[in-house]
Amino acid sequence: MYRSNKYNFFSTDEIKVGGWLKRQLEIQAEGLxxxxxxxxxxxxDSMWIGGHKDGWERVPYWLDGxxxxxxxxxxQDMIDRAKKYIDAILAQQQDDGxxxxxxxxGDGVDGVSSTRxxxxxxxxxxxxxxxxxxxxxxxxxxxxxxxxxRALNAxxxxxxxxxxxxDKYPLFNWGKYRxxxxxIAIYRLYEIDxxxxxxxxxxxxxxxxxxxxxxxxxSDFDEFKLPQHEWGWNAHVVNYAMALKxxxxxxRSNEKANANxxxxxxxxxxxxxxxxxxxxTGDEMLSGTSPIQGTELCGIAEAMYSCxxxxxxxxxxxxxxxxxxxxxxxxxxxxxxxxxxxxxxQQTNQIGCVVEAKKIWSCNSGEAGCFGLEPHFGCCTANMxxxxxxxxxxxxxxxDKGVLxxxxxxxxxxxEINGVQLKITLETRYPFGNKLVYTVEAENEVEFELGxxxxxxxxxxxxxxxxxxxxxxxxxxCKWHGKKQVEVDFITSPKLQKRPNGLYFxxxxxxxxxxxxxxxxxxxxxTKDGIERKFPYCDYEISPxxxxxxxxxxxxFELQELEIGEYPFSQETPPIVLLAKMRQIEWKIxxxxxxxxxxxPESTTPIGEIEIKKLIPYGATMLRMTxxxxxx
Length: 632
Prior knowledge:
By secondary structure, the chain is α+β, with helices and mostly antiparallel strands. The N and C termini lie far apart (59 Å). The longest helix has 20 residues, at 149-168. β14 and β15 form a beta hairpin. Among the domains are: 31-209; 398-428 and 435-491; 495-629, no CATH class. The chain is 31% helix and 24% strand.
């Protein structure tokens, strides 16, 4: 049994980015993710290309974002650099199909430690094959971008060897908890080759992998409804972010799979560990609903990808809404505006990013909340690059009826439908504005459906003289020929949304808004474990220099749309602002820390007069207060 996707992704040949999103991808290319092969030894000197550094997840993680970024930007230098890595990886693939660097000793909970050393083929049983699942996904991605048949053949050989390997050495550790990631490459290869052994491999992975549904529906999960303070595989935030797509992926080849559990899983996680941005806390274990508990960058990037895959499989536009909320808020906030630095953990109420804040984290070091090259641990350094490019590749998606404008970002699609070449361009400021203009150009007459997603977090959409409800798809069916325009206006207003313990946050469309805190940035340049931090890839501590102890005085907000600057997500030049009436309240720092707010204020009785404060998009802030009380 095999089920096809409801929607399918277009290639980097067909999708091109424009407007603010193109600039955001350029920022990423100019920043850390676009230069790791030059500045970070774990990629530059990796065992994947014959070096002596990390030979596990970091190069595949990096390539997973670097490859589509290079092709979306049509940057030949980056394309050549990606090919250099792919060439080296393919060159070292062994005769029996094993593709990872020499097996390595050690299985620490951080996945790969600096003490590991190459030991040769006899060490394969100790090699966590999460890296096999990941590199297979990357090589399929490279094939889809480059059309390089060598990559496709390498995946065939890798998966055949892996199929045999699992009979002798079943999944363990990360591979066991991320087994479903292998289905990405398996299904893509099956669509090409139609060989049944691939579905057998999918079944084998499921049987050896961790069953999230059974675990979360059992009493064993009860203790994990509370914040966790000890490291464990079954409490790890990134495992859960990836596993959001486990059931829907399994559904494609397993007739007994419960496709509905993917949404149920997210609902459970949000109930006990949910954040205002739509994700769940984890620093690095599940950490409750407090606005000062963090969540890991990797978790947000992987949850975005899970949402994109889940929509493709199910056609449920809930996943696209959720993906936008994660991207435009959580992911953009956890990176600096120039994307040369990032956090390991971000906080909803984040009044400082300093090493002394270590005691607020469940399992992470004090630097986890600081911005830098690899704060706390380098997985996020390697993995941060996939979020924006894969979001861009979800801008338009193919359906049986035609084309869907899925993620509402400025982009264009050049493709063919029923033998007719056409181009669809979306020009928009969204999410910083509420007007969308589509231009459809068809060489000859062709009939198809242009679907436009209407998000759940607006009130309604107006297209021509017709109104469309939120949380729907506006289907425009007609015969297209020449050039036609479709204009869409979203009607919405800022709204306060409830959070636990009497706190609220402001949402306008897909954007959350925060009270930005003025800050002082301290550069830290040093060398640790042989890895140099040097501007612009250095570390930063960020301390507050303005008041942050406020509550909302009322529920009225005034909107101001501004120019989108050089950096779309910038605290200094935000593209949209809400003016709010606020008053200071008694709200102290936690346990004497200099830069951590208490979970709740001491009192909601105002201690100051009404002030007009500017609220800016959460994703544009470095320091912020987001969840605050409504004063009466």
